[in-house]
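Researcher: Please predict.
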Amino acid sequence: MSHLYEVALYGEFFAKDLKPILNRLTLHSETCTEIHTREVVFEPLDAQIQRNQGNEPIFLRCSKELLEPKSGWIMYSYLKPESMRQHPEATVRPWATCQVMEDALSFASALGYVRRAQLYKKGYAFRRGPLVIHMFQQEQVDPRTQKPIPAHADTLWEVEVKTAYPVQNTRETPLSQMIEAVLDVQRLMRGLLDLRRKDV
């Protein structure tokens, strides 16, 4: 069976540039909503053993939108990005995702994973055709309450331009079409925001 993929570009900018970037993305997107997302990252129990054997462990990520009270958890995982030689313009990586209606964190633990990190992302989400564009500041976590600490005004903004859902490389939905879609956003933001491939 062939993989399902995510196609993505990334960027970051200083808070002083927020307004023009926000305006341009809003003007060229179908929708814009505020987001406040909690993300918990898990690694396999034997992650260190895998690293010692020269293998990169596969992380699980559990994500929940806090501004939508009824939203469930989404659990997803990425494999290693395809080589730059194969896809020099954008990050293309196998992507598996599923929705978890109840407690995704306990489910991840039951699968043999341990919590590695937790973060909160606060900002905006844009929809543009087959893409979702997330623009956010990361918030630190209060170690006592596990609640987010509001980001400092000068905290860098991060941008992720990516396919809104996993895509299969088929005749109907070729990866080249999705790569072209993210490159359209790269061209659209030229002069305001540098969007590029990232291999992490």
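Model: The chain has one domain: 6-188.
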